[in-house]
């Protein structure tokens, strides 16, 4: 059916996209014509015409005396249909797949993990040999609902070192850090809720939150944490349900939350119903301790999660959630219902590796390598006119600004064709305001070819 | 506020439970007073009074000119608040936790897995030793989006052995069988959809589907598969989105789908929009091949899933989904968004174990052990007046009926206090019509104490 009349068409498109993204669920009553007209600031007759045409097209049905309803069955959930269309180079799912599928000889200065040879492989191998010699139930049996008690007791001590007090009953193991956030999302969020993230933030937060069909609002990130005035305004404007952030080393900026921002943030959260999820995935890369919101809050409104995929292994999956006791009990039920049991063998390998006497020494060496690389890579980037936003104290990331007029997305396209995978700024930015930024992983920048390719690609852009 | 008037109170309770279970989402318009009255078959004035009181209690808000809305924030998702309250002995989540947390010296004739020593531990240990000697990216690096190509090619050949044609691009690895079903649920289902399950069926299907907030309808299971007349009526009455079943050995009955029921089932499904998920978790326990719906259908409306937790290890997590190509692509996106990457090390251990030359021989021995135990346990149960519903050809389960007047839930309570964990029939039954059934796992029935405890508990019931 041909569509005429800009307003009617706009109303139809808006409703169809709400159906596609499941903002309107199937078999659900649409707002009344009057309410819809008010909400969309169009006339009642425009909505009447739009509804009638959508009925004719089969997208919605009219139930006499009861109003208009979405039709029964909808297309399967397609994450690519949710939210505005963006270039694939800044689409979180495309970037993830590109990194995960990259050919073994690709250069990946944009990727978010350490090269294999920088990880403590000796410890993992020792754990495997040890398990191969045992007749332990760890080899074959289901995990207990919360996961290994020994691991939870280890995490209890580890959290105490961050001034977070949690009993082992307040800790649950998960398959990964992402799985931890996903479970919390299923527990706390409903479609249409608002979630605050840092802008920029880890890009898979965007994809994950899309799958929960929530509104994502980015809070500008400063070198000391989220911009507290923006945070306060967002609380008032959106009544967000959740704020999802990194503790310790921030991804992608490498910044640390300051004590004063942490305190103000938590004071604001306390005055609202906001829950904060603090993702502590980079804890073992920290060289100076940033404050943890969960330590200040005592695991009341703050949930601490983490994993070891950045420091032990990304192939051996193990994450955790620390939260208040009754939430953990409900999260355990949700975990059983949706995964039945955790990956017990993986958690045992990770625990043995973390408690191996060589792990701490390996981390110290790793800190040294990273410090050296941060300086070396900074220098090389600066010589190309690419300026680090800050000089991070620790971690693997450099968040860098391109010189005026250079477009990071275009640069990423050009470099990809030469086998160099970059991470353009807007993939991290909900507001799409980081078009002239790139995230570099200094540990993945040891090959001089990266800088040669960058140099040529930058020259072509001018 | 005191509640008077039975009907008003009933309407209020119904609405409150819909809010608690998220059938009504937060910040969402309630049905109009007129529509609600019609739906609940009460007068308009009853609904007006119920809405007014709910506004006074703060559960809903009135927006002048726009109707009544659920309020903004809701309590976290509590699976125990969804659906009718049942005794803990037949509550799927309670039974799962009881089995997963059971003390090492408990006797567990009701549990759904094999004892460790019946599994192929030699193969798992060999895989661990082999990996410990390697410098493989399997130790530390993220999995590719679909998971190991070698594993997917192995599954391709394996599926072909079941007459299911799937390319390796139509297969995606998951963390487990439950994770596979959960991803498909997130992909295809919306809250309020109807899903058909077998009655009885694997009890965690109930808990899983609760987490998706769908209506669950049970189809009586016969020794040849689901009752086809009931299936046809349910299709007409509920327009279900999904039918979730076992292929091969059925849990809990040990029955096989017959060729004629498979054909009629699929013919009915083809005439509707129904998607069928076939969980092939017991494939390696089959001694005579049952038909696979996915083989008849060619992975059009049928999705095949499986895992190796019953035959390789429950501690090493690995499952898979085989489906049509475009669905797999969208499921990959959903997997990345919600778990980022799969457990690569686990999938490598499982692949090495499955392709170890000793695996097939071990399975043959296992088939012999199970056959012997099915006969021995049947005899002992019959002598106690507990009758197997059928004599299964294969697998570990005996679905048994108690003599008249005996209540399985009560029996489970009595035996639990003596350290014997049973699986009472109603935990498997959506219609709660299996109060006089128990599921026995013959592999967990080697200790004569089980039958002594049963004998005494049965005597006490009379």
TrEMBL record, chains A, B:
HTH gntR-type domain segment(s): 5-73
UniProt keyword Electron transport present: no
PROSITE patterns (UniProt xref): HTH_GNTR (PS50949)
Key words, A-Z: Aminotransferase, DNA-binding, Pyridoxal phosphate, Transcription, Transcription regulation, Transferase
Protein name: PLP-dependent aminotransferase family protein
Domain of life: Bacteria
Example of a GO MF term: transaminase activity
Tagged with keyword Transcription: yes
High-level lineage: Bacteria, Pseudomonadati, Pseudomonadota, Gammaproteobacteria, Oceanospirillales
Protein family (similarity comment): In the C-terminal section; belongs to the class-I pyridoxal-phosphate-dependent aminotransferase family.
Native source organism of the sequence: Marinomonas ostreistagni
InterPro entries: Aminotransferase_I/II_large (IPR004839), HTH_trans_reg/aminotransferase (IPR051446), PyrdxlP-dep_Trfase (IPR015424), PyrdxlP-dep_Trfase_major (IPR015421), PyrdxlP-dep_Trfase_small (IPR015422), Tscrpt_reg_HTH_GntR (IPR000524), WH-like_DNA-bd_sf (IPR036388), WH_DNA-bd_sf (IPR036390)
